[in-house]
Write a structure and sequence with these properties.
The protein has 16 helices and 8 strands. By secondary structure, it is mainly α. The protein folds into 3 domains: about 90 residues, no CATH class; about 120 residues, no CATH class; about 140 residues, no CATH class. The strands form 3 sheets. It has a 3-stranded antiparallel beta sheet with strand order 2-1-3. The chain has a 3-stranded antiparallel beta sheet with strand order 4-6-5. α11 runs parallel beside α13. InterPro entries: DNA-SBD_ScoMcrA (IPR058813), HNH (IPR002711), HNH_nuc (IPR003615), ScoMcrA_N (IPR058807). This is HNH endonuclease signature motif containing protein.
């Protein structure tokens, strides 16, 4: 085994294989973990440096791919080889001591400039853009020029409170609360205060950056987290503004369509949700409830928007079937797209003090919904549905 025999040709073949298989499949196939520090930067994409070198070895004549225990991936070995071959290496600075929940809390409790009286939209716009990229599985990290170009366009179209075309402001702010990672820079990252200083730092250093990896993966993989964070950002920062064009622009306008799985036949396993995911969603909804109560006391908000996350959890919990135990309709019927015909209902109306929370919400077929709303037996049914909602909420098994 000699790493020094590897040339750019073998490395590029390994990169091609990673592109073809996708990062996770590539790493699993060859027995590597994600890079913790060093990323190979090539044509605007980033790769796990040690895994690439190990697989590249297998493209040498008469050789086989190396496994992680065969060699070191540090600066003096795999990374040093890649640099000697002319490849760029980005040093990833992982977020330390913060759980995924910590990071989500930082996103939903942003401190933004309010000098005009209303919150500035720089950070929310940047986060929604990055969330849309995560949802589509696009690369987490981008060169500064690409980030700058994308955010300038969004700020120009959706900066509804006079935001200037300055993407450096939100990225510096998000980096300092550890929501956004930056690397590939020579000088300490500037703070978001001042004007020319911030612009000069990004122009001179041209960092590569993106969402902190745990946050990116959560936004990519957890539907209820995406919905809850969108709820929070929209309600906190876009109160009184039309935010729909922005959600369209960043690819988050149809997030509610993902509440219903795309199926060719109605299979129960399509509706599985783990207890942990259900609990995470409820926790985020409860945090939003607490903030809303505080705002109502201070009279800064009149009526919160209904929670997309709560609706999502109720639909998943229902497994696509009407939750009225006395349903006499056609609970198994579906639409042409094989989606269940269900409506999510607040058993106690919000105007009457009900909660926008799965513990007081049910999924009903249209007939049961009509009975609950205007049927002569509606009061009896409401008592039943309140009990059902609480029971289903409190007895979530590992997978419903």
């Amino acid at each position: 085994m000699a790493l020094t025999d590897i040339t750019r040709r073998e490395v590029e073949k390994a990169i091609e294989e990673c592109d073809r298989l996708g990062r996770d499949v590539f790493l699993k196939k060859h027995g590597f973990h994600r890079a913790r520090l060093y990323l190979l930067s090539h044509e605007g994409k980033h790769y796990d440096s040690k895994a690439i070198v190990g697989v590249a070895h297998g493209f040498l004549s008469g050789q086989h791919p190396l496994v992680a225990s065969d060699f070191s991936g540090g600066a003096a070995h795999a990374v040093g080889l890649l640099r000697s071959l002319g490849f760029d290496i980005a040093e990833e600075h992982p977020v330390t001591g913060l759980t995924s929940d910590d990071l989500v809390h930082r996103v939903t409790h942003l401190k933004v400039n309010r000098s005009s009286g209303d919150p500035a939209l720089y950070q929310p716009i940047a986060l929604l853009w990055a969330m849309g990229r995560a949802l589509r599985g696009e690369p987490r990290l981008l060169p500064w020029l690409e980030t700058e170009e994308a955010l300038k366009a969004l700020l120009e179209r959706h900066g509804m409170r006079g935001e200037r075309l300055r993407p450096d402001y939100p990225i510096a702010s998000l980096h300092h609360v550890e929501v956004w990672t930056l690397h590939g820079y020579a000088e300490p990252v500037t703070n978001a205060h001042g004007d020319a200083k911030v612009r000069r730092w990004f122009t001179a250093n041209q960092p590569v950056g993106g969402l902190a990896e745990p946050l990116y993966e959560l936004f990519r993989d957890s539907e209820v987290t995406r919905l809850a964070v969108i709820d929070e950002l929209v309600e906190t920062f876009f109160n009184g503004l039309d935010f729909t064009p922005l959600l369209v622009d960043v690819g988050l306008s149809d997030v509610e369509a993902t509440d219903l799985p795309e199926t060719t036949e109605q299979e129960p396993e399509q509706w599985l949700i783990t207890a942990a995911e259900y609990e995470r969603g409820c926790r985020l909804i409860e945090q939003r409830e607490a903030k809303t109560r505080e705002k109502r006391v201070s009279r800064t908000v009149q009526s919160p928007r209904r929670s997309r996350a709560a609706r999502h959890l109720v639909l998943r919990r229902s497994k696509g079937r009407c939750e009225n135990p006395q349903c006499t309709g056609q609970p198994a019927d579906v639409t042409d797209r094989k989606h269940p015909i269900l409506e999510v209902d607040h058993v106690v109306d919000l105007a009457s003090g009900g909660r926008d929370h799965p513990s007081q919400m049910v999924a009903l077929c249209p007939n049961c919904h009509a009975v609950k709303t205007r049927g002569s037996t509606r009061e009896v049914l409401r008592e039943i549905l309140l009990r059902v909602a609480a029971e289903r909420h409190n007895t979530m098994p590992d997978a419903v």
